[in-house]
């Protein structure tokens, strides 16, 4: 099953400190949402590429259904939220579930 990712074109921020703060704020929002949805521990990490920030969510296999939601609506909503937050700051961001293929 292919992963759907929403992408926004990057325009850049004023400085590196502001970039770092926005990325950390987005990670904290992801963590807050996941704390309310998942019942097991998880990790959220991000990797800054040349043009895109990739947020990786590592979850317990038992929480897969909770995170994906019916027809992917929950993870889709989270991806939309992250994309909107990043776009408002002028950066590009994607959300992936680490080793998603292990759940299928």
TrEMBL record:
GO function term, MF aspect, one: RNA binding
Keyword Cytoplasm: yes
Protein keywords: Cytoplasm, RNA-binding
Ion transport recorded as keyword: no
Organism: Bdellovibrio bacteriovorus
Protein name: Uncharacterized protein
């Amino acid at each position: 099953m292919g992963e759907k990712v929403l992408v926004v074109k990057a325009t850049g921020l004023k400085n590196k400190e502001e970039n770092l703060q926005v990325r950390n704020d987005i990670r904290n929002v992801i963590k807050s949402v996941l704390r309310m949805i998942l019942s097991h521990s998880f990790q959220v990490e991000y990797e800054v590429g040349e043009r895109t920030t990739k947020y990786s969510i590592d979850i317990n296999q038992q929480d897969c259904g909770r995170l994906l939601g019916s027809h992917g609506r929950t993870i889709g909503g989270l991806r939309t939220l992250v994309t909107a937050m990043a776009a408002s700051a002028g950066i590009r961001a994607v959300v992936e579930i680490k080793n998603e293929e292990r759940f299928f």
